[in-house]
Each structure stands twice: as structure tokens, then as C-alpha cells.
Amino acid sequence: MSKKEPKIYTQKEWLNRGKELFGDDFMDWRFVCPVCGNIQTILDFKKINVEPNGVFYFSCIGRYIKDSDGDIFNGKEPCNYTSGGLLTLNDVFVIDPEGEKVPVFAFEGDE
Hints:
By secondary structure, the protein is an alpha+beta fold. The chain contains 2 helices and 6 strands, in the order βαββαβββ.
């Protein structure tokens, strides 16, 4: 099995792509965990009282759910993957203003 060619965006390109797919309201932007396929939004994090700053496109919400019953998100249990770990399984990256390549989750519909 071969790995997909990575998508690399500038920060401006990435923000424009999000707006193109979901509109101007970040609350409506949907991200897909590259491991379990969970689709998550900022609102999902707010619903479980987790401050979403920077984690909603970087870490699966399963990291923040304790004792979930598995049917609260897309009918399955989200995992605990984060892009900041030892292994990066993402194939989407954003070049931040300092020139660093930051792994991010793909937008839903743009995987």
C-alpha cells in the first residue's frame, strides 16, 4: 500500500480552502481524523467543555472524551490520535508564518 502524496498549503491557502468548503464561520469547518475517520468541529469540542484552540484540526476529540459510549460521533468511538506525537500519519500540512510545516487534519470532503 502506498502513501498518498501530501498536500501542503500556505496558511492563507489553507484558510481560503476552508472558507471555500464550509464558509466564513470556523464553527462550521469539519476536520477528519486520519486514523479513525472521525469528523469533528470546533462546536464538538465546546460541547464537551474543551477549549478548541489549536486542537480541533490537530488532535482527535477522542483524546478528550472520558468513558464515551461510542455513539456520540458518527456512530463510532473517536480515537486518541494527535498530530503532535512521535508518528505523524497526516498527509496535509500548513506552512505557518515562521515557515514551519505543521501537520493538520484534512477538511471533510477534501481528504
